[in-house]
């Protein structure tokens, strides 16, 4: 196989992949989402105030329906998702959000498991690393004589049972 054919064999998949990525990036689905899609995405991140652990989108409670209506109305007025979230947080408190914030003290909810997991992995690695190191054993002449006599007894059949 010539060098030109090999280069072409590598270049063809690269060009094909680049073309597929370009088409995927410029697809009509990447356009601005509709109000209904935006509202649904926001409602899945909001906790229903009267339910135990349901999002506003999944709840059938009257408070969830009121929040869904409020979210859609505020989006029609031109407010951003962040403005609507801030309004709901001031009205219901930080507990309205299903996902805790990633900044400040509440950011520890996201960071702490990573730190603990890293420390645990380091501890396990250190444990096995220390076990792997074998201390050199010094053998003196008395030990060698003891092993030789035990082997001789084993050969002669006089070993202790």
Please describe the topology of this protein.
Blueprint (H helix, E strand, L loop, with lengths): L2 H23 L9 H9 L18 H15 L4 H12 L15 H25 L8 H16 L5
Considering the chains and any ligands shown, give keywords for the structure.
single chain; 161 residues; mainly alpha
**Largest sheet composition:** none
Helix content: 55-70%
Question: What percentage of the residues does DSSP assign to strands (E)?
Answer: under 5%
Q: What class would the helix/strand composition place it in?
A: mainly alpha
How many individual helices?
6
Uncertain parts: none
**Backbone CA Rg:** 34 Å
**Oligomeric state of the chains present here:** single chain
Question: How many beta strands in the DSSP annotation?
Answer: 0
Coarse morphology: elongated
Intertermini distance? 71 Å
SSE order in H/E notation?
A: HHHHHH
Give the integer mean of the pLDDT values: 83
Give structural notes.
The protein contains 6 helices and no strands. The chain has 161 residues and is an all-alpha fold. It is elongated, with a radius of gyration of 34 Å. 62% of the residues lie in helices and 0% in strands. α2 (35-43) packs across α3 (62-76).
Short description:
The chain has six helices and no strands. The longest helix has 25 residues.
């Amino acid at each position: 196989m010539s060098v030109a054919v090999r280069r072409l064999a590598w270049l063809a998949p690269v060009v094909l992949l680049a073309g597929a990525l370009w088409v995927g990036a410029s697809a009509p689905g990447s356009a601005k989402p509709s109000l209904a899609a935006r509202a649904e995405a926001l409602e899945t991140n909001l906790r229903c105030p009267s339910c135990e652990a349901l999002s506003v989108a999944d709840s059938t409670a009257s408070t969830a329906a009121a929040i869904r209506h409020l979210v859609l109305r505020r989006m029609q007025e031109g407010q951003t998702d962040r403005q609507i979230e801030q309004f709901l947080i001031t009205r219901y408190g930080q507990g309205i959000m299903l996902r805790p914030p990633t900044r400040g003290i509440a950011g520890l909810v996201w960071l702490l498991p990573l730190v603990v997991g890293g420390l645990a992995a380091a501890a396990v690695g250190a444990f096995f690393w220390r076990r792997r190191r074998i201390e050199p054993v010094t053998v003196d002449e008395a030990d060698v004589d003891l092993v030789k006599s035990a082997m001789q007894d084993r050969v002669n059949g006089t070993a202790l049972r």
